[in-house]
Amino acid sequence: MIFHSSFLMERRAFVKPNYLVFMKNVRKYLGLVSMSLVCASPLAAMVIQPFVGVTIVQQNVITVKGQVMDEKGEAIIGANVIVEGTAQGMITDMNGNFSFQCPVGAILKVSYIGYLSQTIKVSGNAGTLKVILKEDAETLDEVVVVGYGMVKKSDLTGSVASVNVDEMAKRNPVNIGQALQGAAAGVQVMRNGGDPSGETTIRIRGIGTVQGSADPLYVIDGIISSASMVNPADIASIEVLKDASATAIYGSRAANGVVMITTKQGDKNKSRINFTANLSVQSVNNTIDVADADLFTWGVRQSKAADGKSLTNLAWGEQYAGQLQTIDWQKEMTRTALSRNYRLSASGGSSTSNYMASIGYTKNDGTIINSWYERITARANAVSKIRDFLTVNTNLAYVRTGSHGGGNMRPYALTVPTMDHLDENGNLMNVPIKYPDGSYGVPLQEMNGDVPRGSDNLVARAYDNDSKNFTDRVQIDFGLTVDILKGLTFKTTNSYNVTNKSSWDYSPRNERTITSDGLDTFSMEMSRSSDWNSENYFNYIFDTKGHHINAMVGQSFNQSVDGFELKGSAKDFPADNYRDIASTLNSTTKNVEGALKVKTTSLSYFGRLIYSYKDKYLFTGTIRRDGSSAFGRTNRWGTFPSASVAWRLNEESFIKNLNIFSNLKFRIGWGKTGSSYGDGSKSIAQISTSKMYYYWWNGVNYTEQMGAAKDKEIDTNLHWETNEQTNLGIDMGFMDNALNVTLDYFIRNSYDLLLDRNMRPSTGFTSIYTNAGKIQNKGFEFAVNYRKTFGDWFVNVGVNGSALRNEVKEVGDPIFATEASKGYEWDNHSIIKNGYAIGSFYGYRVKGIFQNQAEIDALNNASSTGKYQSGSTQPGDYYYWDKDGNGYINADDKDIIGNGFPKLTYGISINANYRKWDFMLYGYGAYGQDILSYSAMSLSSIHNSTGEFQNCLQEYISNAWTPENHSTKYARMTVSDNNKNTRVSDAWIKKGDFFRLQNIQVGYTFDWGMRIYGSIENLFTISSYNKYGDPEIGTGRLNLVGYDSGRYPYQRTYSVGLSLQF
């Protein structure tokens, strides 16, 4: 009867629409209620008697005592402790204790809702038992957060991925991106570099826009917010809504998926203080293997000889081989760095209220010299039931971040590895990084010579610079939940947030280089923006005779209240470290500008109906209508519907009788979402004025007249981008859900894309911003999880992955992008074109390397121009493909040569517990990934983009084509590069497949609630791309997918940490 009552109460606790109460906490409350029921009965004063027919021999009976706790050391109230095979036993008291008599050799079964059961054999000298129950994540995950509410996981009809927050917390992520990396199928997370801020690029089911944002929407505690607004250590749950049937409730903001985040709350009638600390040591674990001074200067001499030129820096001559001092710029520009991460929280509550307050501090010194990142977070959440029908909740969050400096390993690797040169008397000078008197060494200054003009000491330059960025964010939420009638509630949440940003950059006078004007420079920038959100909705839940109805209807309002941006810069100040733009000694260098941001407003109406019959046949339908001031008056509104159904076959008798599936559910969903980008200025005609001049017949005399004209053509029918998505899914559970498998297939069509289209010159305008594009993403996702207890062992293994194909269906004329230095002929290296993936690689195709002059002469003789590539093409140069077959190479021979979308991305996690020990292993990777590598090109060339020398790979110098070594991999070394071997081509497309073992950790939990651990992050990365840098390529630019030009280096991190709970 006790178990039955608990089940009913759990059910009622779920259907009560109080969205701030988690099922985990609800289950804990069940123990209190169950214990109260038992204490009110005669059974409270005695041990439950065994079943009839069970005989207990008195002389073998002992008193067994113990305490039941969870993995955090908290007492579990109301846990069931029984002798297996009997009804003999009891439930634990307020402190988790139990004590009763039982036979020696009996098997005790300890169980509690939301936890994995445990069995213990009673020995004659059992003493006081300590029983630690592990959370049953499968049970706890029964309730997931979706837009404007919660639903049971078994009732989901859309594609929703839940992140294991406990496992995530162990990894100690800096931000949400790192928390999601490798944790959910269909969510691709790539780090933008190894800088201390840990910024990432997140894509959910591909890219469906050309000129907008592909970032997901973040909803924190029911309010649309910034991902930077929450410390990952404050997170209680994360759900990722992937398909349109799940995201359409957020309409025009949900085209790229939705990340639902719920922060931690306090427990009623239980106070606790938590403290966590993590101390890490970081070092760069992958440097680029470039040449030392002797090998580099040998390569210089070889290339000079091939070009028929002589040295200008005579210290690089053969007679000084072995005497030059090598400077490893990668080593000099990096360091072993410390990182600290602390969090202190207090939580608790009474029978009618709860609270949670936390403060966090992160400081990362950065592995590049003179760089750092710092963050302070504070959060306070409170819920109070002030009347039986009225609940008030308030949240306050503050985040401050600061950073200084940065860097890129590629330029460090390319810097000439010695500053040695001859003095005016012809003596070799070994130039160090820094002299004993504190002054810095400087390389030879040549305006037109071997040494790159303006060469400087990189260490000196790094310490000269003072560049800081600060961001302050504050968010205040206030909400009310009103229980109107049985099953009917009303909830309102209002939020205001403000963001202030400021930055400055100061460089002192620098007379070390001949290209510098020597002047000190200072620039600064500041901005402010704020938003107000209001969410209001009614929810009604009704159950009768197997029918379950959950209906919701609401309204949302958002407005960017105000905003401004100011920035200024100047040079040449009265004194060192003088930072007043108005005080510049040279007013021509002063530039100050500012603007008010355009205010935008949106208004929405939405509704949802969830229906299930006997927990077998499920339906969810949503509709949202959004209006935005970003569009013209005639097209401000858009409608975004969705529908999905599911069938739980495991509830059907013909499946149950198979005894194979513990869960089997088919899902199908369809829906529309949208997006609008910009501030609305592109839908408003803008007029500018200018002077017009009318000249007389002699061309000297004229009349001046002021005139006005439109700046650009406006599309008066400008409207929302639309995403239409269909999803097919199946959820399977085996062996009592110890093994769970989820499979999804989706097709996402994005159309009416907002982009600039070219116009006929006769219109007087070059382009028009309009709805004219279409992109398709389709793919397959899988997630497999196995969790099982074997005696003292608990094992949890998870694997997930996704395969995606992206194709541009319609964008009109091709759209190009360039992010490479001029001089290497990498213009328009990325392209958006019909029939190909967004941001595809665009360049020449290499057929091989010319091995002799006869091959070149044959092609030149067959060409109508007398030259196939260049009149200076030589053996050892690349042989390019003549795409159009006209007999010579020009820009018309460029072709689409690949794209940066991986064929498969995946994540792997292994968690194990043995008694008080825990172990974690976590990794992720990509397969079938191509990289257009500007890094590989520049590291395989001994000259830079302006024709001066730079360092390069040892492998290249040692294996480049020579008359004696007819290489088929590396072209010859040359400075002139008349054949343009460094131009963008498929020679620079490299395989980017990788697997990274991101975290391995071992921890131990003491009886009194403290856990200590040690971990190694980024233990290794398996990839053939490591020689050029890191294969994990993240970028926020949509048309540069898979493009690599180097970045802040990734680190290997050794950490120790502890967590305490009082």
UniProtKB/TrEMBL annotation:
<dbReference type="InterPro" id="IPR039426">
    <property type="entry name" value="TonB-dep_rcpt-like"/>
</dbReference>
<dbReference type="GO" id="GO:0044718">
    <property type="term" value="P:siderophore transmembrane transport"/>
</dbReference>
<keyword id="KW-0675">Receptor</keyword>
<dbReference type="InterPro" id="IPR036942">
    <property type="entry name" value="Beta-barrel_TonB_sf"/>
</dbReference>
<dbReference type="Pfam" id="PF00593">
    <property type="entry name" value="TonB_dep_Rec_b-barrel"/>
</dbReference>
<dbReference type="InterPro" id="IPR023996">
    <property type="entry name" value="TonB-dep_OMP_SusC/RagA"/>
</dbReference>
<dbReference type="InterPro" id="IPR000531">
    <property type="entry name" value="Beta-barrel_TonB"/>
</dbReference>
<protein>
    <submittedName>
        <fullName>SusC/RagA family TonB-linked outer membrane protein</fullName>
    </submittedName>
</protein>
<dbReference type="GO" id="GO:0015344">
    <property type="term" value="F:siderophore uptake transmembrane transporter activity"/>
</dbReference>
<keyword id="KW-0812">Transmembrane</keyword>
<dbReference type="InterPro" id="IPR008969">
    <property type="entry name" value="CarboxyPept-like_regulatory"/>
</dbReference>
<comment type="similarity">
    <text>Belongs to the TonB-dependent receptor family.</text>
</comment>
<keyword id="KW-0813">Transport</keyword>
<keyword id="KW-1134">Transmembrane beta strand</keyword>
<dbReference type="InterPro" id="IPR037066">
    <property type="entry name" value="Plug_dom_sf"/>
</dbReference>
<dbReference type="Pfam" id="PF07715">
    <property type="entry name" value="Plug"/>
</dbReference>
<dbReference type="GO" id="GO:0009279">
    <property type="term" value="C:cell outer membrane"/>
</dbReference>
<keyword id="KW-0798">TonB box</keyword>
<keyword id="KW-0732">Signal</keyword>
<dbReference type="InterPro" id="IPR023997">
    <property type="entry name" value="TonB-dep_OMP_SusC/RagA_CS"/>
</dbReference>
<dbReference type="InterPro" id="IPR012910">
    <property type="entry name" value="Plug_dom"/>
</dbReference>
<keyword id="KW-0998">Cell outer membrane</keyword>
<feature type="domain" description="TonB-dependent receptor plug">
    <location>
        <begin position="153"/>
        <end position="258"/>
    </location>
</feature>
<feature type="domain" description="TonB-dependent receptor-like beta-barrel">
    <location>
        <begin position="453"/>
        <end position="1019"/>
    </location>
</feature>
<dbReference type="Pfam" id="PF13715">
    <property type="entry name" value="CarbopepD_reg_2"/>
</dbReference>
<keyword id="KW-0472">Membrane</keyword>
